[in-house]
Structures are given as structure tokens and as C-alpha cells.
Amino acid sequence: MVGTGKGAENGILIKDAESLERAHKLEVVVVDKTGTLTEGKPTVTDYLTVRGTANSNEIKLLQMAAAVERNSEHPLAEAVVNYAISQGVDRKKLTGVQDFDAVTGRGVQGVIDGHLIQIGTERWMQDLDIDTQSLQSQRQAWEQAAKTTAWVAIDGKAEGLMGISDALKNTSAQAVSALQKMGLEVVMLTGDNQQTAEAIAQAVGIHRVFAEVRPDQKAAKIKQLQSEGPNKNRQVAMVGDGINDAPALAQADVGISIGTGTDVAIAASDITLISGDLKGIVTAIQLSKATIANIRQNLFFAFIYNVAGIPIAAGILYPIFGWLLNPIIAGGAMAFSSVSVVTNALRLRNFQPKGVR
Ligand SMILES: [Mg+2]
User: Fewer CB within 10 Å: C terminus or N terminus of the chain?
Assistant: First the structure.
């Protein structure tokens, strides 16, 4: 009770007291990228068309892409729509899309005036046999700059490329290094492409990356990490914000959601970081360690009076010293053990997170 209360004071909502007890045993912390390490507010920063600039086609293409993306709730889709509007596309013209379809982890498509518009990842374009050679060097350069890229294809031909950037939270690198100093392995799990994921991982100091993981594979990756190590039973925490993270949050030994994330993620998690500041994970683990240490001390206080008193009451010292235990002392010890436990538990109120403020 004191531990969960202390958590709340530090912006950590602990829904399940058992998870507070489990957190001190964690060995691996898996973090989602978008919305967890990053702010989750992507913006389009680069846009090029295959046919070159100074072309009315450029705006027309953007308008069609935005019209299709408007049907999606993906954060990247919103970024495309906002960018199109900022470039002068009229919001009212973002209509007339038929046969809209979102391909999980790949992209979106729709038909406008009989033309098939597809917006999505390099991998998807490869699957669709769409040639993406023309802007390949730009794509790689953007991805090395930690940007997510999306192709715009019309009728099976790549016509444009967008670079989408999502700023890192300014506390992410600090939180990762604090976790590593505590001896935990930090792993990134993302649906984004390998290059972008690695660029972000490098910026925050994460050495192990699972990229291009589809939402339905995220929980399996957690299972894989849990079965690693000598005992095949590593304690793994998952930190995520999205609907697609929910199965992984449930699979993890401790699921940690971001308070600014989706309701589904929060519901699937054991612990919620209200502000979204990842340093809360460090605090949660420290709090767990402090709570477990306190529980162990309390077990000592709960038993020591009995361990000492019962044998004396039973007469173990009687043959030597002629000592027995007066029931008044026994009654006093009973009460005193409770007082000791409660007083010691309340000491947890002095808990202060270390090294992360
Ligand atoms: Mg996310």
C-alpha cells in the first residue's frame, strides 16, 4: 500500500500490486519506439517526387496521398494530411477515395478517379513489385537521419517519397542509460524499418533492435526474450503506448504503458507512467526494490518475536535458568510485532527516486 502510494506520488500508477513485487527481478526492458521513446507527433519534413520539383504534379500527388491517408488513424497518416494542408492543399479536396484499405505494418491504399494510390514502406513496395530505384539514395539518407520514409505510388509506379520525423523525448536517452547502469538490457521493438530504428536506437544508446516487427508479432518477440538466458525464464518488461503494443504488454512479466498513449495499452498494462517520461521506469524498479526490501524486513519483524518467545514459553530455558515467559510479555510481543511491521512499512514514505531527477 505504501509502495503503490509512493508510486502515485511519483507519477507511476501501479494497478496491480504483484507487478510492483515482480519489477525488482526484471532483467530486460523492451521499449516501443514511436510514442514511447519519441514524442509520437510525427511531422513530414521532406518530400520529393520522382519527376522532380517545380511541377504542378507535386501538389496534385500530395493531395491524392493526403486524401487516402485521411481515412487512416495512424499517426503517420495524420502527419501526411497536416503536411499537405500546410503546403496549400485544400482540406475540402481530400475526398473521393474508394476502396480504402490499410495493410497492417505496410501502408494504406485507395482508388481516386480510377487510379490506385498506395502509400507505404519500402518493404511493401518490394512486395508489390514496384520499382523504387529513382529516389533510393534519398531514402537511405533520410533513414540514416532517423526519419521514417513512405513511398507514394500511383497505379503501381513509385511517384514520390516522404521523410517523416518524430522527435525523441528529451529524457529517453537518460532513462535508457539509467536502466543500463542498473544492469538491465534495453531492447527496442518497432514496426519501423531497420535503418530508422537503428538510427533512433543509436541516439538513445540502445544496442539491440527488433525492427520491422508487425503488430501481431510483437507478443511473440517478448516470448522469445523471456525464453532466453540460462534459465530460459528471463523477466521481461514491455513499455508501449499503442493499440498494437497491447498483446506484448499483456505477455510481458511487467507491462508498462504511457499515460499519453491509447486506452487499450493502458488497460493491458500493469503500470502506467502518467507523464510518459521513461525515467518513471527507473523509479518504478527502484520503488519495487525498496518495497521488497521492506517486505523482507517486515517478515523478520513478524517472526522474530515468535522465534524468540515461543521456545522460551515452551520451557527451553527452564532446565538451565528456571525461566518461563509471562503471558503479559507474550501479549505485549504480539502487539509489538504488529507495531514494528507497520512502523517499518511507513518508513517507505521516505523513498526518493535516485539518479533520475
Ligand atoms: Mg507506439
Answer: C
